[in-house]
Write a structure and sequence with these properties.
74% helix; globular
């Protein structure tokens, strides 16, 4: 049990800015095995976002509360996944050959595709959450609790099913370049899907269906353009599937 707790804290320390206990050891191998708990990190991030949304909505309009909630989750994660989304937009939008795409994605500067993609992504999430909050604040809170774990499960599935394509040993995501074992994938699947029980059946199905469709499409693009995934691809998949969750819940809610 202690080893499992250490793996969770390893994942938490890698994907967020939350301090982890000093007794938790770190190694690339441990980060590799911690992939099973990436969706569980989403529980923490989603709960933080939901808490900020609930607290600020008590005294501010829903639209402002949503923006503050998003700011809190971005601060908590250090914009880790948003950076991956922007880099992937730049690379896949501006590059033609595989090597050119990888070179652009490695560049720390953000370009036109990245700027436009990041702006539209944040705007899309804000509008979706505002619409959910206008229907029912509780629905928006639950959407956060569902979308963050489920979207991180989407990224974890890419680690399991695709190959890591960067040869640079210094890449941040290099230690993740290993397919999950069956029991590790089962843990990730449980952590990523359990919060769906908070939703009615139809919105839960909408979230899963749209997130799965977006993840499948992302995997196809990554395979065709790169032959596999990079760390930026994982961040892009998380962002896209998170937005898909919100859209799926909204679309399905119209049929209730």
């Amino acid at each position: 049990m202690r080893y499992q707790l250490e793996l969770f804290f390893t994942a938490l320390g890698f994907f967020t800015r939350i301090p982890v206990p000093g007794w938790v050891p770190w190694s690339p191998e441990r980060l590799n095995h911690a992939a099973r708990y990436f969706p569980l990190v989403g529980w923490t991030v989603g709960a933080a976002g939901a808490l900020v949304l609930w607290a600020t909505a008590l005294v501010l309009p829903a639209s402002i509360a949503v923006v503050l909630s998003m700011a809190a989750t971005i601060r908590l994660t250090g914009a880790f996944h948003e950076d991956g989304w922007a880099d992937a937009c730049d690379g896949l939008g501006g590059g033609w050959e595989r090597l050119q795409v990888l070179t652009i994605m490695k560049d720390s500067r953000i370009g036109s595709y990245g700027s436009a993609g990041l702006t539209l992504m944040l705007l899309g999430k804000a509008l979706a959450l505002i619409e959910l909050a206008n229907i029912d604040l509780t629905l928006a809170l639950v959407a956060l609790l569902v979308a963050h774990p489920l979207s991180r499960l989407a990224s974890t599935s890419l680690i399991h099913f695709l190959d890591y394509v960067r040869e640079d040993e210094s890449a941040k995501s290099r230690p993740l370049a290993r397919r999950l074992q069956a029991h590790e994938l089962a843990i990730a699947l449980l952590c990523g899907t359990l919060p769906l029980l908070l939703l009615p059946a139809l919105p839960a199905l909408g979230a899963v269906a749209l997130a799965a469709l977006v993840t499948w499409r992302a995997a196809r693009v990554f395979l065709r353009r790169l032959g596999g995934y990079t760390g930026d691809c994982l961040g892009a998949a998380q962002q896209a599937s998170e937005l898909a969750c919100y859209f799926g819940i909204l679309a399905a809610w119209n049929f209730i």
